[in-house]
Design a protein that fits this description.
The protein has 156 residues and is α+β, with helices and mostly antiparallel strands. The chain contains two helices and eight strands, in the order E-E-H-E-E-H-E-E-E-E.
Length: 156
Amino acid sequence: MPTIDHGPHIVPPPPGPVTLVCCNTTKGPLSIAVHRAWAPIGADNFINMVESHFFSSEVPLFRALKGFLVQFGISGDPDVQQEYERRMRRGKGFLEDDPHWLPLGPPGREINGSYRFQKGYMAYAGGGKNSRGTQLIMAFDRNMYLGGGSPWEVPW
């Protein structure tokens, strides 16, 4: 089993197994390590998206900000998007937020030179409590502002 080095964490992440999802993109392969113990609701939803072939249509990357993040998760096929929302979410609306394991608020942004959100962390984009849908963000670099204070930004 491969060893995954996340660099210095601001706090130790919850221990648990890792599921590796391998993706083909127009720019080459992308491997995503899914840590269910970090955010079980979000991780399970992502794995369901993969297993239901949500990402088999062209899923564009957008909101790509150098040194910050990239956002994605809207199916290139509107029927796939609607079917996922209907079938996989069973009409419940948005995902509930996972419990935060990172320190919240401005005092928790940086501790002893470690930032809250590490390079490569993924979380759901959202706009309020329990607002997560299919859109995801991936950090291009460690960041002190992501993952703290916004209830939907729990990395997995």
